[in-house]
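TASK: fixed-backbone design
INPUT:
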C-alpha cells in the first residue's frame, strides 16, 4: 500500500513513512484514518480530511488492500 500525503498532511506527517507492519491489520479507510490519527494527532485538528483509493474519493467503510494507492486530501482553500 502506498500512502500519499498532500498539503498540510505532509507538513504534519513530515518525511516519515508509515511503518508497513502497522498496515498489515488495516482493512478499511476508517481503520487507516484511526491509525494515522493515533500516530499523528494533529490530523484530527483538520476541519475535513478526505481519503482517496486509486484516485477515487472513498468513505471510511470502503476496503483497502496492499496494492492500493491511498491519498490523504486535506481541506483546500482558494480565491
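OUTPUT:
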Amino acid at each position: 500500500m502506498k500512502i500519499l500525503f498532500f498539503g498540510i498532511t505532509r507538513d504534519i506527517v513530515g518525511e516519515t513513512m508509515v511503518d508497513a507492519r502497522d498496515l498489515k491489520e488495516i482493512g478499511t479507510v476508517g481503520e487507516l484514518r484511526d491509525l494515522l490519527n493515533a500516530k499523528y494527532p494533529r490530523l484530527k485538528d483538520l476541519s475535513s480530511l478526505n481519503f482517496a483509493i486509486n484516485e477515487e474519493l472513498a468513505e471510511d467503510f470502503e476496503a483497502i488492500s496492499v496494492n492500493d494507492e491511498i491519498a490523504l486530501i486535506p481541506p483546500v482553500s482558494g480565491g
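COMMENT: Residues 55 and 71 are 7 Å apart (CA to CA).
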